[in-house]
Amino acid sequence: MPTSPALHFTHEPLSVILPALRAALADAGEVALTVPDPDLGLGLYAGEATAHGLHRPWHTWTDLADLLGAHLLTPERVGAGRVRLRLRAWADVPGPDAGGYGAGGDWARVDKLEDPVFLLTLVEALRRVSPPQGGRVLALGVNRGRELDALELAFPGRGLDVVGVDLSASALAAAQARHPGATFLELNVTTLPRPELGRFDLVLALSLLQSPGIRQDVLLAALRRHHLTPSGGLILGYPNARYRDGSLSYGARLRNFARPDLSLLAADVTEARRGLHKAGFKVFVTGKYEVLVTAIPAEARTPGNLELSSGFRMNRDAITGMP
Ligand SMILES: C[S@@+](CC[C@H](N)C(=O)[O-])C[C@H]1O[C@@H](n2cnc3c(N)ncnc32)[C@H](O)[C@@H]1O
């Protein structure tokens, strides 16, 4: 891919840099730039002066790449306190969900537990709910069951009884292969409540509630009234990102909007939070690329020790029965 000659930035504000990079990317699909080495300004805020120009942390450049729809390629040091960066425009490929959620599709390439914020906030949310030893877990829209791996991370050895449901038979077959001890059912969540399923200590619904045909108020009421134990809790996930060309790009998108717009996300999270609060739950809202709404009974003790810990620590917790 042709790269135009590197642009050199020292004291220019970001308001000058951003449009210059956008224009260069639009022209050539790739742009190189040299900037002050972020390592030399550690502790400074973005825009504070250094001997080599205005400091900006790596975070600025990763955010900028995301905003401009580009990969940030591995930087190189180019002497005298400067680094050379390159941005390469994302390939014009469909998102991994464009072909649906079957096991053979691109959605199967997505591993949300590789997003550090998701990993930590999901484990934290799970530990807030903390189903008991041998407790029952219902995972709605479970797809191929990747998120269920987090149960063992949060509660090693707790022997949970897991039921996963989804519309996609091929995704459920993959989930069954991944979690042979769990039960997977091909079921439309709009048919809930289903008394034969019984009650659960934890209900998980990640990136499901905004799917076509689902009314979250109806589904949440059915779950609360018919599928939760009195001490049970819920974890609801709302995507605040989209996947494109291998990247997780910040911000929920509305249909036909080019730029992120968080209106629907904010409305749905607010509605879920308010409804659960009214129904007697303590509610936590966490996360970044996926916003998690965690609800536990208002009278429940808010658990501590929410961190994902090392194997050693987790084993000790399992032995001592700590939440
Ligand atoms: C965006 S994917 C999320 C998968 C997984 N929970 C995750 O967070 O990565 C949505 C999943 O919900 C399933 N789904 C959508 N509508 C559904 C419905 N009405 N009943 C059951 N599953 C549904 C889809 O088949 C798909 O596997």
Automatic annotation (TrEMBL):
<protein>
    <submittedName>
        <fullName>Methyltransferase domain-containing protein</fullName>
    </submittedName>
</protein>
<dbReference type="InterPro" id="IPR013217">
    <property type="entry name" value="Methyltransf_12"/>
</dbReference>
<keyword id="KW-0808">Transferase</keyword>
<dbReference type="InterPro" id="IPR029063">
    <property type="entry name" value="SAM-dependent_MTases_sf"/>
</dbReference>
<keyword id="KW-0489">Methyltransferase</keyword>
<dbReference type="Pfam" id="PF08242">
    <property type="entry name" value="Methyltransf_12"/>
</dbReference>
<dbReference type="GO" id="GO:0008168">
    <property type="term" value="F:methyltransferase activity"/>
</dbReference>
<feature type="domain" description="Methyltransferase type 12">
    <location>
        <begin position="138"/>
        <end position="232"/>
    </location>
</feature>
<dbReference type="GO" id="GO:0032259">
    <property type="term" value="P:methylation"/>
</dbReference>
